[in-house]
Each structure stands twice: as C-alpha cells, then as structure tokens.
Design brief:
CATH topology of the largest domain: Growth Hormone, Chain: A
Number of helices: 18
Strand content: under 5%
Number of strands: 0
Shape: globular
Length: 438
C-alpha cells in the first residue's frame, strides 16, 4: 500500500461530476453502492449486522438476569458488566495484533467459536464463577472478532476508494448502518425470546453466531489479496511513538466519552425534566433511527466537501454544541415536554456528530498505521479510547455530583470535544514504518 495516499488524493481531485451528486440518501444510490462492493466487503458488512443482532439479543437483558434469576448483589452485577466491557474493549489491541500475525480468517473463526461457547455457557450458568467465566469468554470473543472485521473493512474501503468508486467513508458508513440495524433488531428479538426464558435468548444468540461461523467457513478466502502477515516484533513500541495516531485516539476517545453520556448525564436530565426515565427509550430510538436513515446521506455529503480531519472536527463541534444546548436551557428549569426538548436536541446533535466522527476516524487509521499492522492500530484505537472513557466517566460522575450550578457540568462536557479538535493531526499521511513480511 506504499504510495496509497497520494493515489487516493489524486482520485479525489479527479472525481467526476456524478460522484459529486448528493444522492447518497436514496434507496437507488444505496443499492448501487451495495452492488459496487466486492463480495468480501458484502460478507463483512452482513457479518456486522448479524454480530450485533446476536449480541444485543442477550446483553441488554443480562443485568436483570444476574440480579433476579442468579441473585447477585448489585455491586457484583456492576463488576460483571464492567468485566465484560474490559475483556472486550480493553483487549481489542490484542485481537488486532493477532489479526496482523495470523490473518483475518482464523481470528474471525476463533471469535465465532468463543462467542458460541460463551453464550451457551451463559445460558446454563447458575453459579457466580460460571457467569463470570462465560462473560469473559463472550467479551474476549468480540476482542478477536471485531478488530479482524473492522480492520479488513477499513483496508478494503481504502482500496475501493483507490479504484475510483468514491470516498472510503461511504463504505464505513454502510458498515455503521448495518451495525446500528443489528443493535436495533437484537433487543426486539431478545425481548420476544425472553417470553420463554433467558436461556432461550442465549441459545438463539449462539445460533446466530453458528450461522456467522458457517458463512465465514464457506465464503471467507483463506488468503485475502494484499493482506500480509507481519512477523516482526516491535509494532507496539512504534505505535506508542506514533504521536499522530495517539492524537487521533485521544480525539476519538473524547467522542466516546461524550457518547457515554447517553447513559450517565442524559438519564439525570430526563429524570429532572420528566419525573422519570421513561422517555429515555424514545430518545435512544430517535438516535438509532437517525443513524439508520441519515448515516449514508450525511457521509456522502461530508465526503464530497470535507477531508477526514474536517469531518471529524465538524462532528466534534456538533457534539459540543449538543452539550451547550442543555447547558443554555438548564437555568430556565423547564419541565414536562418543554423540558425534554434540550435533551432531544442533545441526542440529535450528538448522533449527527457521531455520523461524521466514526466513519472518518476508522477511515483515517489506514493512513496512520504502519504497513501490515492495520489490525493492531484498529484495535488500539478502541483500547486507548476505552481507557479514556474509563477515566473520563469517573471524572464525569464526580462532576455531576459536586452540587455545582446545573449548567456547569454540561458546559465542561461541551468543552471536552471542542478542545479535542486541536488534537487532530493536521495532514493525512502514512508514517514511514517497517515493511510487512510476506
């Protein structure tokens, strides 16, 4: 992929007028985009859809199952949920390294096998130690599966862009939409299956991954053209010296921290305005519908007008403005339907900002990674950002409990993504690195 960026920029400058037509939101244009994709990209995007259906058919209902059916104490439920997050997000970098070392196919297959085993184990687990073991297996399965799929989608998107089909962010946006559809459909499936019992939901989730495993065994090539295995050591040391990539991780981490406020700051605001958290489900549904309906047109619009840095900057500033809307409204003390309007504005601005930030960040990683180490870098993007969220969430919780004037915490939260714009690397370029071993 040497010289890739210069060729991509040349392609961008030579875009035809048809590429600039802002029709990215029509079903016809989406279908044309799908038809333009390689069979491998279609497989990976459908994999993301199935992955989230299986995952969200089980995990949203885990806390209640642990507290009621298993009888765990509240602190232990929180510990188990946190352990699942750590075994997944925190170990993404390990999964990414394994992808670079062994290739996409074996790591994806191993992740599917572990996820099947984890869900089946969780369905039958009754003792606390068994539940903890199953949850760790489920989390580590995602730490294998997701970096493999995400890194190959990003690499294929760059090649798709290089071939003159359009901005790579369009492919990554379609990948995000597929994931969001799965995240929306999964809980609906899980809710229906819970009418039987939690074990049935777990086994159904495992069955989804049996289908994913079969699909990859049948359709995933043994060797993906252009993807080489990296045998040399020292990739982590080079990554930690890659200041431009770490800056991207920090900026992306501020987005994830902001997104986490859907579960931390927003519920408090909704409870204050409405007297309960009942409207939260509608606000979450609003976010999901926006992503499904608007992600592709927003990405097409941004791809025609903004480079990756400007797209991320615009997204971070929109997210900051969402916090500012709530901060500006808090002194008025509105309640009822009027009091929920600032919260709805926050959700809309956060979601539109997410539509700009996420595809751009994932599209930027191949430009900043060493040759042959895209898996490691894609995994590190999630792991480093997850550490930022872990530390930032603790600080945010303290900030919300300090008794400061109501607008102050929201103003501080608005400042974080706004200041992160300054962290973004100034130019898109691939650093000099070790060539991948064949």
């Amino acid at each position: 992929m040497t010289g890739l960026i210069s060729r991509v920029l040349a392609r961008r400058s030579a875009r035809t007028s048809s590429d600039e037509t802002p029709d990215g939101g029509t079903p016809e244009s989406t279908w044309r985009l799908w038809q333009d994709l390689s069979p491998l990209l279609r497989l990976l995007i459908l994999t993301q859809l199935a992955f989230n259906i299986g995952f969200y058919a089980v995990l949203p209902f885990l806390a209640e199952h642990l507290g009621t059916a298993i009888g765990m104490a509240g602190w232990l439920v929180g510990f188990v949920l946190g352990l699942r997050t750590f075994s997944q997000q925190g170990l993404f970098v390990v999964g990414g390294w394994l992808v670079d070392r062994w290739g996409v196919r074996p790591v994806v297959l191993a992740g599917c096998v572990l996820r099947i085993a984890g869900f089946a184990w969780l369905g039958y687990a009754q003792a606390s130690w068994a539940v903890i073991g199953a949850v760790v297996v489920i989390g580590f399965a995602a730490a294998l599966f997701s970096p493999a799929v995400e890194s190959e989608v990003a690499r294929q998107a760059v090649l798709w862009e290089e071939a003159g089909h359009g901005s790579r962010t369009r492919v990554l946006a379609l990948f995000s939409v597929a994931g969001q559809v799965g995240a929306f459909a999964g809980p609906l499936l899980g809710g229906l299956l819970l009418a039987v019992d939690f074990r049935t939901a777990c086994l159904a989730g495992a069955a989804v991954f049996v289908l994913v495993l079969a699909g990859h065994l049948w359709l995933m090539p043994q060797h993906i053209p252009g993807r080489v295995r990296t045998l040399e050591k020292g990739g982590a040391r080079v990554l930690l010296r890659n200041r431009r990539f770490l800056a991207l991780c920090c900026a992306y981490g501020t987005y994830l921290l902001a997104y986490n406020q859907l579960y931390l700051a927003l519920p408090d605001e909704v409870r204050r305005a409405a007297g309960s958290q009942a409207p939260l489900s509608w606000l979450f549904a609003l976010s999901s519908v926006l992503v499904v309906c608007a992600q592709l047109p927003v990405t097409r619009w941004a791809g025609d007008r903004l480079d990756l840095r400007r797209s991320m900057a615009a997204g971070l500033l929109l997210i900051a403005s969402g916090f500012a809307v709530v901060a500006a409204a808090r002194p008025a003390g509105w309640t009822g339907a009027a009091g929920l309007l600032p919260a709805a504005g926050f959700v809309v601005l956060l979601t539109v900002g997410q539509m700009l930030v996420v595809p751009a960040a994932r599209a930027w990683v191949p430009d900043l990674a060493e040759e042959g180490r895209i898996g490691l870098y894609m995994g590190a993007l999630s792991s480093v950002s997850g550490l930022i969220v872990l530390a930032g969430s603790a600080a945010t919780g303290s900030l919300l409990d300090t008794g400061l004037p109501a607008a102050v915490p929201w103003l501080v939260l608005a400042a974080v993504p706004a200041l992160a714009v300054a962290l973004l690397p100034r130019r898109e370029e691939r650093p000099q690195g070790t060539q991948a071993a064949a």
